[in-house]
Predict the structure.
Amino acid sequence: MNASLATDCTVARLDVVDSGSGGRRRQRHLDQALTDMLDIALTTLDHHNLYASARRFQRADGDSATLAFGADIAKAWVLSDLVLREFDLALGEVNKPLIDRYRLRVRIAVDDGPTVIDPPHITGAPVVGTARLIDAEPFRQALVDAPEEDFGVIVSDRFRAGVVLNGERGLDRVPFRPVEVSVKGTRCSAWVYVPKRER
């Protein structure tokens, strides 16, 4: 990607739920589990010839991570196949042998738009947008209210209008619900989905 010019990207931010409690050993475990989960999920890209040479960016920051996918990766694919399927499967893998206290749970925010990537830096409205969305109180509360679930997703109103509602990869059937976001001076509408598993 051109380091000085913005290109259209899909940006996903992941934050570990409740990473600050339980002491250093638990924090270290969750940081490593997030890295392992991403490694497992992102190998999917490398196994698809279509995406093997696709442009992408990844930066880990302890208990969070930022990913960006260039326009050569379909936005609907990022949400439906990577986030909703591969992240879910990878969370199942890293959480398999663990007691509940060490279970990795993540909040995932997705937005799209002009993004400047200059590794290790990334800037643009979707980067700021996902940082605000992921801290939205209604989104945090949604995960508190579903302690049995490993992850939840919040998407910007723009992403929903441009990608989800078009129905590609069946995204129009995902029951996102509207929330209002008010974080650090940002006020906007967004859409939250927390999978409900049958037990």
Remarks:
- Residues 7-193 form a domain with the Alpha-Beta Plaits fold (CATH 3.30.70.1230).
- The beta strands are 7-16, 56-60, 64-70, 106-118, 121-124, 151-156, 177-183, 186-193.
